[in-house]
């Protein structure tokens, strides 16, 4: 399937925001695919880690923002360890997660947890999960 690339979006606002949040440049990546080969979570992902970077490089953040891959990333740093350019993909995944949350896309809802679980769950873990997966808006 061919994608239409808009030159104006290649270094567009959303892609720049992901880079700013992540503090990491995705343009150093030359698509060797080592990150995807090293990632232990790829069987669960709907998009390979190298594809996430490529879509962002091509100015197609909407593809990445619809994916579950950033939420499956465990930030284990395997990708950065094998990357010949030292790109920290886990930071980019975090930037994408933050963008999704800024768009108001929640990944969990408080009401999805039954009352019994909410009573026995460690509060710090519960709050940490809500901060990571729920929009503030």
Describe this structure in words.
Helix 2 crosses helix 8. This protein has 137 residues and is mainly alpha-helical. It folds into 2 domains: 7-105, Alpha-helical ferredoxin (Fumarate Reductase Iron-sulfur Protein, Chain B, domain 2, Orthogonal Bundle), CATH 1.10.1060; 107-137, no CATH class. The longest helix is centred in the C-terminal third of the chain and has 14 residues, at 89-102. It is globular and about 50 Å long. The protein contains 10 helices and no strands.
Quick recap:
The chain has helices spanning 7-10, 13-22, 34-38, 49-57, 61-65, 69-72, 78-82, 89-102, 115-120, 123-133. The chain is mostly helical and 137 residues long.
SSE layout and pairings?
Blueprint (H helix, E strand, L loop, with lengths): L6 H4 L2 H10 L11 H5 L10 H9 L3 H5 L3 H4 L5 H5 L6 H14 L12 H6 L2 H11 L4
Helix pairs in contact: 2-8
CATH names the topology of the largest domain as: Fumarate Reductase Iron-sulfur Protein, Chain B, domain 2
Number of helices: 10
Q: Give the overall silhouette.
A: globular
Major beta-sheet overview: none
Number of domains: 2
Using the CA coordinates, give the radius of gyration.
16 Å
């Amino acid at each position: 399937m061919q994608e239409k690339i808009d030159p104006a979006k290649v270094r567009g606002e959303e892609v720049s925001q992901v880079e700013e949040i992540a503090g990491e440049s995705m343009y150093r990546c030359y698509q060797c695919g080592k990150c995807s080969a090293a990632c232990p979570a790829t069987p669960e992902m709907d998009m390979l880690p190298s594809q996430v970077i490529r879509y962002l490089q091509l100015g197609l953040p909407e593809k990445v923002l619809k994916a579950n891959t950033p939420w499956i990333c465990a930030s284990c740093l395997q990708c950065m360890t094998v990357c010949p350019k030292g790109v920290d993909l886990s930071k980019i995944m975090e930037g994408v997660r933050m963008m999704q949350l800024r768009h108001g896309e929640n990944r969990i809802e408080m009401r999805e947890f039954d009352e019994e679980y909410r009573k026995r769950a460690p509060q710090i873990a519960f709050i940490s999960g809500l901060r990571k997966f729920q929009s503030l808006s």
